[in-house]
Amino acid sequence: MHKHELDIEYRIGIVTVSTSRFKEYGELRGVDKIGDFDESGKMVYEEFKGKVVNYILVPDNEEKIRRAVSEVLRDADVCITIGGTGVSPNDVTIEAVKPMFTKELEGFGEIFRMLSYKEIGTSAILTRVAAGLIGSKAVFCLPGSKEAVKLGVEIIKSLIKHLLSHARGLS
Question: Which residues contact 64 (CB under 8 A, 6 or more apart)?
Answer without folding.
Answer: 27, 58
